[in-house]
Predict the 3D structure of the following.
Amino acid sequence: MDDLHSLNEAINAKAGRKLLPSILVSLAIFALVFVTIEYVPILFGVLVWAAIMLAMRELVRAYNAGGIELPERILQLAGTGVIVAAWYGKVSGLAVAIAIAIPNVLVYMLLRNPKDFVRRSTSAAFAIFYLAFLGGFIVLLAHHEDGGARILALVVLVACNDTFAYFSGVLFGKHPMAPAISPKKTWEGFSGSIVATTIGSSLVFALAMHKDWWLGAIVGVVAVITGTCGDLIESAVKRDLAIKDMGSLLPGHGGILDRIDSVLFTGPAVWFALEIIKHFKL
């Protein structure tokens, strides 16, 4: 037991987070996602909305701690409008909603307080786009006749990317990918993620979506790139605001945004890939 405890502590120290709580939280999230998308799709939409709202709160409070004051309730209201528009209006609703939400929030902020407007307005626009607009593509994937398989593909892609980047980095990581942004992210972790995610995506596309395996392999490679970019973007935000985690709601992960950062970037890529496959009847 002592040896096992020592091994666990060594892994935690090298990876920068606690392994066991992280696994348990991930399993609980996966169970909640698949139960809702399979039996009560609208509840899955509510789940996505709740995650976006919590992430919005985390981001706004992180901004406030960094000296950038943003109106939390107004941003959450705008984000709610974008998510609802995505559910009922699909991609056109999402596009129109974001085009309406951001200008109206900027006007509200200008009328309330014109001080530091450029800094505050760009931060607000980033928050709405980053969380609500990108998160809207998760809703688009779910609100589809084949929504369950699409969300399964997204979950497998993100899970393979995060899990095998984690373990490959812990076991073999020696060369930092972006030391100025995320010192623990390595090229070895990235390589391990490419292999595992490509295999996992190929299997999901062949078995669950009844598509050619090579389509899944291509999407898998794209997902690793987008997921890694999502991780780096959030790491850059946290480093710029001088914080370690966006929150502490999820043991082993930090905040909600720490958990969904790669999902936000991978969701649009998966949606776009599936639309291309559908359009060209691949």
Remarks:
- The CA atoms of residues 144 and 150 lie 8 Å apart.
- The radius of gyration is 19 Å.
- The chain has a mean pLDDT of 87.
- Strands lie at 176-178, 182-186.
